[in-house]
Amino acid sequence: xxxxxxxxxxxxxxxxxxxxxxxxxxxxxxxxxxxxxxxxxxxxxxxxxxxxxxxxxxxxx
Length: 61
Prior knowledge:
The structure is a single chain. 69% of the residues lie in helices and 0% in strands. The chain is mostly helical.
């Protein structure tokens, strides 16, 4: 499945949540989608846990 289809499905899910559940449901679906995206990238190996917990002295330049 290409990224355009995934984006369309995510947009439709947010649209349905906003229409039927209001703004609170829209924000909840968006937040859970973002968490799921980060978890999926982490499990796939594209992200490492250290990317989120890096100290200031260890910055990349």
